[in-house]
UniProtKB/TrEMBL annotation:
Coiled coil recorded as keyword: yes
Protein name: diguanylate cyclase
Enzyme Commission (EC) number: 2.7.7.65
KW DNA repair (keyword) present: no
InterPro entries xrefs: Diguanylate_Cyclase, GGDEF_dom, Nucleotide_cyclase, Rev_trsase/Diguanyl_cyclase
Coiled coil: 211-245
Main enzyme class: transferase
Catalytic activity reported: 2 GTP = 3',3'-c-di-GMP + 2 diphosphate
Superkingdom, natural source: Bacteria
Domain GGDEF intervals: 272-403
Provenance organism: Vogesella oryzagri
Amino acid sequence: MPLSMLATPDSRFSLPQQVEAVCIKLVARRGLVAGLSAPSAAILLHFVLEAEGVLSQVPFWPWFTSLCLALGIQLLVDAWVLVHKPDARMLQRWPQLNAASLVLVGLAWGSAGWWLHSSSPLCTMMLYLVLAGVGALVMIVQSAFMLAVIAFEVALLLPGMLHGLFGVGRMAQYVGVASLLYFCLLCLYGWVVHRQLRHGVRASVQASLLNEDLMAANVRASNALQALKREHQQLQQALQTIERMAHIDELTQLPNRRAAMAALKLLVDAEQPAALVLLDVDHFKQVNDRYGHHAGDAVLRGVAERLLACLRQDDLLARFGGEEFVVILPHTEPADAHSLAQRLCDALAAQALPVEGASLAVTASFGVTPHQAGEALHGWLARADEAMYQSKHAGRNRVTLLP
């Protein structure tokens, strides 16, 4: 759990007392989780002893019972903190209670070196590995209180050290020396973690106190800020409307010539491979003259919808002016651009457009040209325009590719 969630300012306490309260809560939460999961390590030892066939040689269940009793006491000490609000009495008594309960847990774990000692090398190795892991885990969990760390590690490793002093054989000496070295290592590392954790908690509490002051100042400024936000939103909406009017064709709701030219300029400046399709609706003037401008507008909207349905996600369709449209195809080879333009041409001619109660056959002439390296924008547009007019002169309703 982040320290900021525990470091709630309490005006009853001084800064050191608040740091102590946060550390107590933090260790109690961690200790509760560690205590509830500890029996699983003991069950692992049971399985190893049983697999090695030496379970009947050791008093596993009496030892396990004593371990559970010690863990129960430790869980009660942690739960007391979690269900009560910190007060001066808790700040004074809990560290001593915690250390005393950890001595019981450490003795219960450490006694496994005597109670569960067997003739199986695998069981002995697993036993000391579990004890080493328990020692490291408790050092991390309890690092906010060095008294608790030292009390537990002494209780845990004392049997191993005594075994080295009074045991017989070189192995007993190895176990004793290893226990002593491991104890020193855990205490040293625990002290480093202790200092870092305490420093972090203190900084978190100070930040919470500062945040409380800032929140009060923020409340005083909130009304003015809300007014500024409303004005800002109104300005943003006005800017979006202006932006839309400047780059969107009102009739077809497609990007207009300005937006298309900006997109083309980006492609030219970036020297990216791309193709350009320029198309002009055939005999559009006749539609306006015969059916009126409302019909012409409907034709342009229908052409836009039909073209959009055939394009890819990255393609850009824009109304270039009058009855002209432009399709910008980034990262497209000339042959692929020609194929796409042919599909657009076929899609327009395949079905008449319903306009003003009539069905009008609508076609368009297409010019396709890729962008050449180093070519200026006006040169690219001129070649696309030339390709489109070649389609017009060749009979309309067709596609011309000009490499």
